[in-house]
Amino acid sequence: MSSFRTARTPRARLVGAAATVVLAALSLTACNDGTGVESEGRTTGTPSTANGTATAPPQDEPAAGTTQDSGTDASAPAANGPAGKDSGTKAPAASGGSGGSGGSGGSGGSSGTGASGKPVTCEGSVTRTTAAPLTRPVNHMLLTVTNTGSRTCFLYGYPAVRFGETQAVPPVIEDSQPQAVVTLEPGQSGYASVNLAAADGSGTNGHTVKSLTVHFQGRSGNGSVGTAAQPSLPAQGVYVDDSLKVTYWQQSMDDAVSW
Questions:
Q1: 102, 142, 144, 147: most buried, per Cβ within 10 A?
Q2: Distances in whole angstroms, Cα of residue 7 to Cα of each of 11, 16, 19, 41
Q3: Burial readout 230-240 (b: 16 or more C-beta within 10 A, e: otherwise)
Q4: CA 207 → CA 134, 169, 241, 242, distances in Å?
């Protein structure tokens, strides 16, 4: 019995060793066909599916970390549409707020003429009136009205004059009416002449007067407006008769004394 056990032991070891060699060869064949797993912790090449075919990323999806090119800058939304859609219009630049030069945030105030700059009617409170007898033409007196105010004034119609205690207003020479209303800027003057008496002595009720009142007309020409003027007359007074008459206000002295 002892001899039999001793003879079988070397053979069993030989069979075991041969089986080990066969398993090692099969293991090497599996690693060399390109489908096995290489060293643990590192993969290379294209990942494969279970049947050994590589799978590429879908063509209509951008790869991670990149921006898909649609022809529009996604960082700047269009002015007339939602972000990421090109409307063909660039977003307007910022204007810097409402504190620019235009609108209510500008320099302030109006550059035009305000209510205080509107023209007024020429009358005694905004003018100075003088009365000067003329040697030529004879028996004439020149009235000069100067705008002493800060606004333009309109010298309407003709002077309504009263000499002394006379209540009646002498008539106007109709042919002397100018084509436009006399306009006086501050400091400017307008003129009218007074025919005091007939040059040939044909006038009636002649007498000497030593005071004069000048009333101003409004735009309507009906009655007087504002404050009357009382220019001084020469100390000896002036001679007047029933031929007394006046001209319309004129823009120039020459036009006034030509009647």
A1: 147
A2: 8, 16, 20, 49
A3: ebebeeeebeb
A4: 18, 16, 6, 10
Distance of CA 250 to the CA centre of its chain: 41
Q: Distance between CA atoms of 64 and 85, rounded to whole angstroms?
A: 22
Write out the two tokens for 201: 């002595």
**Local confidence band at 116 (pLDDT 50, 70, 90 cut-offs):** low
For 181-199, what is each residue's pLDDT tens digit? 999 999 999 999 999 999 9
Q: What is the CA radius of gyration of the chain?
A: 59
Per-residue pLDDT tens over the stretch 23-72: 444 444 444 444 444 434 444 444 444 444 444 444 444 444 433 333 33
How many whole angstroms from its chain centre is CA 136?
A: 57
pTM of the model: 0.56
Whether residue 224 has pLDDT greater than 80: yes
Helices (H), 32-112: none
| CA 159/CA 171 separation, integer angstroms | 10
- Which amino acid belongs to residue 202? S
| DSSP state for residue 16 in the 8-state scheme | H
Domain locations in the chain as residue ranges: 120-257
Locate 229 and state its tokens: 């003027």
Residue linked to tokens 């905004």: 126
